[in-house]
Every structure is written in C-alpha cells, then in structure tokens.
Amino acid sequence: MERATDYPPSGKSVIDLKRLTKRYGGHTAVNGLNLTIERGEIFGLLGPNGAGKTTTILMMLGLTEPTDGTARVCGLDPARQSLEVKRRVGYMPDDIGFYDDRTALDNLMFTASLNGLNAQEGRRRALELLDRVGLGEAAGKKAGTFSRGMRQRLGIADVLIKKPEVVILDEPTLGIDPEGVRELLQLIREMSRNEGLTVLLSSHHLHQVQQICDRVGLFVRGELIACGDVASLARQLDEDGSVTVEIEASCWTEALTERLKSLDGFIGSGSPVRLPGHPEEASRASFVFGSDQTSDAAKLVIESGARLHAIRRKQYGLDDIYHRYFEGGGSHERNNR
Ligand SMILES: Nc1ncnc2c1ncn2[C@@H]1O[C@H](COP(=O)(O)OP(=O)(O)OP(=O)(O)O)[C@@H](O)[C@H]1O
After folding, report:
1. How far is the centre of ligand 1, averaged over its atoms, from the C-alpha of 302 (Å)?
2. What does pTM read for this prediction?
3. Fold assignment, 239-315
4. Which of 139, 152, 150 has the alpha carbon at shortest distance from 109?
5. What sequence ranges are listed for the domain ABC transporter (predicted)?
C-alpha cells in the first residue's frame, strides 16, 4: 500500500497546539492536547466518534474558545484573530452545504466573491479548480444533482478558491464508495504536494487515511494517545520488546500447543484457528514471547510431527494498531490476540 513519506519537512510549524483543552460543563472533550504540524505535511487526526476531533478543529479555527491551553495556526491565535485565520485556512466541514439549485460553477463563484475575488477572476479560478477536481464536465450542473463523492470534490475546490495555506477536512471520505475514497484521497495528496499545502484531515478510518498521511495522531476520549507514521506507531506497540510468532501447521495437537507455551519467555497465545479451504486442513495460531522464539518454535512444531506450512515473526499492521488503540480503547492487554 502506498504511503506518503516525501513531504518536505521545513522545520516550520504551521499548527502548534499546546495543552489545548475544551470542557463542556463537567465533560472534557479535549484534554491537554500537544500537537505540532509542519508546513506541507498531511496529518491525519484519527479517532472514533466523539473522540474530540471536531472540537479540536473548531478551536483551531476560532469557532469555539479553548477552556485552557493555546492554539497557533499560521502563527496566529484563532481565539483572537479568527478572521485572519479564516483567510488563510480552508475548512471543509463533514456536513458541507451548497446551494443545491445553483450550478457547481455558480457555487464556487459565490465563494470566490465572498473571498474578495472579482467576477472575472472568480470564474477563472472556479473553472480551473473544477477541472483539477475532475468536475470540469459538471461545471454547469446543479449541485443538488451531485453524488456524495462529487459534492466532496466540489467541497475541495470550494476550500481552495481562496488559495489557503492550510486545509482542514473533517471526515472528507464519509459516505463515499471505496473507489471514490481512493480518488478523493489521491486528489488531496496531489493538491498538497503541488501547492505545498498543509493538510489536516480527521477520520475514523485508519486504513483510508494512512494511504496519504505523512503522520497520524490517534485520538481517543479527548487525548492524543499515539502520534507518528504508521511504522513508528507499530514500534510503539512493540515497545515492551515482546515478539508475536504466527504459526500455520496441519496435524496440530493439544500437546504441541502446550510445548509452545513452555518455551522461554512465553506471555500469551490464541487458540489455533482452522484456515478455510486449506488442502491439508491447516490451522493458524499466534504466540507472544518476551524475546524472539521463532526458530525454537519451528523446531518444536517439526519435532511434534505436525506439518509446518508457515512460521513468521508478526509485523504489526494497521489492523493491530486499530484494534489495540480504538477497539481496545487504548488498552494494552496483550494476550489472546
Ligand atoms: N457544544 C457541545 N456541548 C456539549 N458537549 C459537546 C459539544 N460539542 C461536542 N461535545 C461533546 O464533546 C465530545 C467530543 O465531540 P466531537 O464532536 O469533537 O468528537 P469527534 O471526534 O469529532 O466525533 P464525531 O466523529 O462523532 O464528530 C463528545 O462527547 C461530544 O458529545
């Protein structure tokens, strides 16, 4: 799977959040968030519903005031300079609205006029952007007839009209089919790379956004519990030094499972699961050890008379990260995975 790693780190932060906190009455929606995003970076703010992503975005835009801490966006304080921030930041909310009875071109020209472009310049830029987002042919069609995917493309053109430095997209892929998601994300990436745009996008789809994000932050219950590229998140999972060995074998016996459990440093295991359609009725099971026991485990399997089909030291992937941090609610339970 393609993942972006080539954003030019400038060492210049465009978004800088320090101990940013938002409380609604007794409920803390965002709790002491520290986050720096560099110019040109594509950052994915990931978390389940209600994690506090939208609240964080609203504070960055000056649309709601922090209870505590500070936000700096393009060097500005959104709480006090919200107009200036809005001039430099394009924001696409998750429920983006258009004038449905007006054409795509009219909608964009209207946004252009709100941003101070004259009619001629607005029309030129709107047509150029419609082409860029793949809606050139649909410029004269009413926005109300657009599919969800087309509306999101129109939304991206809409936020780019004012040539922002930063683009914030709240759940841009919501309700779009997989092919549409792929195209939309590719478009966001191209826009960022071609124009040096800084992009922050929120999502609860780790799989989707990792395709284009330089870094992701995992946000759970108002707190950033992990941050980095996918490889470094996986390393954070591995930080206790344990190693998961995955074994596929036929003629698996209870005695073999017990012998594997008696290897040095055994921490936990899952029960063998039959692999559907395997010609030799093989099963797969994972064993977690305090150090790498792959070769000793292979030896044991062969000695036991089972037929070994595959054995590997498991690399953590997105599913593991997602499961650990999201479904496990940040739990660090290791057994029975
Ligand atoms: N105006 C408000 N008044 C009271 N509570 C609020 C308000 N806005 C948000 N919350 C609460 O703050 C928490 C974070 O909400 P937020 O919308 O920021 O989460 P989110 O991660 O964006 O989730 P979603 O993907 O569902 O939008 C939730 O528990 C929500 O109910």
Report:
1. 54
2. 0.74
3. Alpha-Beta Plaits (3.30.70)
4. 139
5. 15-246
